[in-house]
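hey so i finally got around to running the thing on that chain from the lab meeting. sorry it took forever, my laptop kept dying and i had to restart like 3 times. anyway pasting the input first so we r on the same page abt which one it is
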Amino acid sequence: MNEIEIPKQLRQFMLEGAEETKLGNKMGAKKQYRYGRSDPIRHLVWDAPEVLIGLAGAIIGGSKVASYLYKNNFSRKSSVASGLLASLISGYVSYRISKKLKE
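ok and heres what got predicted. didnt touch it at all, straight out
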C-alpha cells in the first residue's frame, strides 16, 4: 500500500467543518472524516452498490433455500437455520462478485 503524506498547510483546509466518523472503509488510514450529513440510501446506490447487491443476494438466496426446504417437509427449525446459512453465503458471494465487477 502506498503512503501519502499531506502537508500541514493543506490538512487544516481539508478538515475545516469535517467530523470524524467510524463509518466506511479506512483503507489503512488511522482516522476518517466526513463533511456534513450524507444520505445513506443515496450513498449505497451511487457509491456502494455492491452492498445493495449483497443484501439482495442474501434475501433472495436465503428465502429460496428456506422455502424449498419447508415445502419438502424439513422441520421449520432446520429450514430457518439453512435459510440463514444460505443468506450468509449468497450475500457474501453476491457482494464479492459485484465488488470485483466494479473494479
